[in-house]
Amino acid sequence: MPYHRATCYRVYPAARLAQSNIVTIAAGAPGQWVTFTGPAIALDPGAYWVVIHTGPTNGLIRKRSDGVANWYSNLDTFSDGAASPFGAGTTGTATLSVYATYTVGY
């Protein structure tokens, strides 16, 4: 069964800040919005990545491949949690849609 989690990384210096709950999405399921719930964390001003971590098989999230080269990926074993730091990655031409919300002054 394919598992997924959302992970928040600070871009510089690179570090994993938080991981969400694990969500199961069945292979072949129709496209849909999926809710991930993570812990409340304080974020200083800066740049962050919202990463979708999949496993145990990689490449499970649907993507649209006609966008600009804004894809950055990294092979990372799911069972031990998302790597920190993110690690070396590769670029590609794909786009994911992510709708993220946050609360100021949690």
Brief overview, please?
By secondary structure, this protein is mainly beta.
Topology:
Elements: E1 3-10, E2 15-19, E3 23-24, E4 48-55, E5 71-73, E6 90-92
Antiparallel strand pairs: 1-2, 1-3, 1-4, 5-6
Structural commentary:
This protein is mainly β and 106 residues long. It has one domain (1-101). The chain has strands spanning 3-10, 15-19, 23-24, 48-55, 71-73, 90-92. The strands form two sheets. Strands 1, 2, 3 and 4 form a four-stranded antiparallel β-sheet that branches. Strands 5-6 form a two-stranded antiparallel sheet. It is globular, with a radius of gyration of 14 Å.
Any idea how many domains?
A: 1
Shape: globular
Please summarize the sheet with the most strands. 4 strands, antiparallel
Q: What is the strand content?
A: 25-35%
Poorly predicted residue ranges: none
Percent helix among the residues?
under 10%
The succession of helices and strands, N to C, reads: EEEEEE
